[in-house]
Design a protein that fits this description.
Layout (H helix, E strand, L loop, with lengths): L6 H10 L3 E3 L11 H4 L12 E10 L3 H13 L5 E4 L15 E2 L11 H24 L11 E5 L5 H14 L4 E4 H8 L6 E5 L3 E2 L2 H10 L5 E4 L6 E3 L4 E5 L2 E10 L16 E10 L4 H4 L8 E5 L6 E4 L5 E9 L7 H18 L8 E11 L6 E6 L2 E5 L5 H16 L5 H8 L11 H16 L5
Parallel strand pairs: 2-3, 2-12, 3-9, 5-14, 12-19
Antiparallel strand pairs: 1-10, 4-8, 5-7, 6-7, 10-11, 11-12, 13-16, 13-17, 14-15, 15-16, 18-19
Helix pairs in contact: 3-10, 4-10
The structure holds flavin-adenine dinucleotide (FAD).
Flavin-adenine dinucleotide binds next to helix 3, strand 13, strand 17 and helix 10.
């Protein structure tokens, strides 16, 4: 079966490369995912050792992979599913984000309204499904239906804020306006001049949520960690080579996000962009009192140069900002020091007395963007499937995308699956150095557009 996404050219390339896909580069997210560091150490990993057989192998245990494995396990109780992860669950991007589980288009200025409207249905369904799972399995991840506030610090960002509220109006999402006093009441800071508040989305500790989701998979799903797939061979079913063993599977679902291109699959579809976050140690009561009266909040910048900022339920500040083109998928120490300094300054600009609060971690992670808010979803070739979560609201879109892909594989139909299948496929991108040049130029423009927002 030829994929709805990925396309004929991808299929041909796959068929031509002697049916062996070698990973040129493996995930190396670098140390100090602050969310992960605050959790107790996990039990030792079960690794792929010797010869493992499974009906399905799912590569990558992020939001997409955990969702695919869960739903396959549910729909095919007599089949076995191997979920194989290069590092540990919760350590990768799905556990190192800002923890916004978004039920609606997350940013203003929708370039493709039809796609945004369809995506919106997926985001809402993904949020609802995750909420149900967290509740049903009592996953302790600080899940809170607090919603979110989009913020503008300077007059130059007001058009961006208007684009957010216009987008909400177009999609029929209720919102309310906040002024500087309202924002001070929530955050304790007079840094922001205006905000747009919307309900419906949630805030979580993402590493804890991912760990909880992986710990509650159906019994026919086995999780293997610290087991990078080095190569996929396709002679007679699939053979996945890991450092200490192999998995033989009838069907494979690729959920390794931006690392798919490292295997030569889905190249030139996704722009890999790194962003960076720091999480502080818990604030003292006196420090926490400087951050408003609500005990938590989640702020998203209206302007893309701004900062995502949270006060978590356990009394920490999360600061996220800065964008880098991340084709190398590496985070050199000098870059991480520079980012940590930027985050410290961003905290001090909002709360001058908190500029020296120590961090439990500063880290980077990679987000995937498409040129057209398109989808990567479906079959690449017989028995090889993929789902990738890009652009807006990727955590909730990835969760529902993974669930729907499993249903698609099992022949289940639904209105939501039809919505997913009707999205345009991720458009082809130019290769480097053209893409690199274009992305650097765009990042430069973003940085220039809202200098005071960070
Ligand atoms: C700083 C930051 C903040 C963000 N904030 C938010 C937010 O608030 N809300 C939101 O919705 N999104 C946010 N995102 C984006 C979001 O986290 C990602 O888009 C999403 O996690 C992608 O999910 P995924 O399952 O597709 O990929 P991933 O989570 O990257 O999972 C893929 C997994 O595949 C594994 N893998 C790769 N190659 C191999 C291999 N060869 N063998 C085995 N395993 C392999 C990786 O180790 C990884 O764990 C943020 C991202 C960053 C970096």
């Amino acid at each position: 079966m030829l994929g709805t996404q990925g396309g004929a050219k991808e299929h041909e390339r796959f068929a031509m490369v002697k049916r062996r896909f070698k990973a040129r580069r493996l995930p190396d997210d670098g140390p100090r995912n602050g969310w992960y560091e605050t959790l107790p150490p996990p039990p030792p990993a079960r690794r792929v050792e010797g010869r493992v057989r499974a009906d399905f192998a799912v590569i990558g245990a992020g939001t997409c992979g955990c969702a695919v494995a869960r739903r396959l396990g549910e729909l095919r109780p007599d089949d076995t599913v191997a979920l194989v992860e290069a590092t540990r669950v919760g350590y990768g991007t799905s556990g190192r984000n800002a923890g916004f589980m978004l039920d609606h288009h997350s940013h203003g200025g929708m370039r493709h309204f039809e796609a945004a409207r369809k995506n919106d249905r997926l985001f809402a369904a993904g949020t609802a499904w995750l909420r149900d799972l967290v509740e049903k399995h009592q996953i302790r991840c600080q899940w809170s239906d607090w919603g979110r506030i989009y913020v503008a610090a300077e007059a130059s960002a007001e058009p961006d804020l208007k684009a957010v509220s216009d987008g909400f109006d177009a999609l029929g999402v209720p919102w309310r306006k906040l002024d500087r006093d309202d924002l001070e009441a929530v955050t304790g800071s007079r840094f922001y001049r205006r905000g747009v508040r919307a309900d419906g989305s949630a805030l979580v500790q993402p590493a804890a949520m991912m760990r909880g989701l992986a710990a509650t998979l159906p019994p026919n799903v086995t999780l293997y960690e610290e087991s990078p797939v080095l190569e996929i061979g396709t002679t007679g079913g699939f053979r996945l080579a890991c450092p200490d063993g192999t998995i033989e599977a009838r069907e494979v679902v690729l959920c390794n996000h931006v690392h798919a291109e490292e295997m030569g699959i889905l190249r030139h579809r996704i722009v890999p962009l790194a962003s960076f976050a720091s999480l502080t140690e818990p604030l003292s009561d006196a420090q926490a009192a400087m951050l408003g009266a609500e005990g938590e909040f989640g702020l998203l910048p209206a302007n893309a140069n701004g900062s995502t900022v949270r006060l978590t339920l356990d009394g920490r500040i999360l600061m996220r900002n800065s964008l880098h083109y991340a084709r190398s998928k590496r985070f050199p120490p000098a870059l991480m020091e520079e980012v940590a300094d930027t985050h410290r300054r961003s905290i001090a600009r909002r709360w001058p007395d908190l500029g020296e609060v120590s961090f439990s971690g500063t880290w980077g992670g990679i987000l995937g963007f498409t040129r057209n808010e398109g989808a990567v979803f479906g079959a690449v070739r017989d028995g090889l499937w993929t789902v990738m979560s890009c652009d807006a609201a990727p955590m909730t879109k990835g969760a529902i995308g993974g669930k729907l892909l499993a249903e698609h594989i099992c022949g289940e139909e639904s209105e939501l699956l039809r919505v997913m299948l009707s999205l345009p496929r991720a458009a082809l991108l130019p290769p480097d150095p053209i893409l690199r040049f274009a992305v650097h130029r765009r990042i430069g423009r973003i940085a220039a557009a809202g200098p005071g927002e960070r």
